[in-house]
TrEMBL record:
Keywords, in A-Z order: DNA-binding
GO MF, one annotated term: DNA binding
Species name: Brumicola pallidula DSM 14239 = ACAM 615
Biological process, per Gene Ontology: regulation of DNA-templated transcription
Keyword DNA-binding included in the entry's annotation: yes
Record-linked PROSITE patterns: HTH_LUXR_2
Phylogenetic classification of the source organism: Bacteria, Pseudomonadati, Pseudomonadota, Gammaproteobacteria, Alteromonadales
Residue stretches making up the HTH luxR-type domain: 33-98
Protein name stated in the entry: Two-component system, NarL family, response regulator DesR
PANTHER family: TRANSCRIPTIONAL REGULATORY PROTEIN DESR, TWO-COMPONENT RESPONSE REGULATOR
Pfam families registered for this protein in UniProt: GerE
Length: 100
């Protein structure tokens, strides 16, 4: 059911709640959001966790026994998959979605 098909009393109630500063989320959107699969590989999640802690690519490489170039590749892939502008934003997005 779309919002235009909702009963008018439900719509009026939603408008009152929004006007009062509350957030209204349609149940079908919540269900859809939880259905999104984690696109990240285990290595991408690992390097994002270290990145979120502020480690450089070289430090992450030392901690994970990977070359710094490999770390940069994983970070680049994760950033691209999540549509982020940089690795910090990618880590934040992944954390918000519960993937880290």
């Amino acid at each position: 059911m779309s919002i235009k098909d909702a009963p008018s009393d439900s719509l009026a109630d939603a408008v009152r709640k929004i006007h009062a500063g509350k957030i209204i989320v349609a149940p079908e959107l919540v269900t859809e959001a939880w259905a999104v699969d984690d696109p990240l590989s285990e290595n991408e999640r690992k390097v994002l966790r270290f990145s979120l802690e502020g480690h450089s690519s070289k430090e992450i490489g030392d901690l994970t026994f990977l070359f710094a170039g490999t770390v940069r590749n994983y970070l680049s892939e994760a950033t691209s998959k999540l549509g982020a502008k940089n690795r910090i934003e990618a880590a934040r997005i992944a954390k918000q979605k519960g993937w880290l």
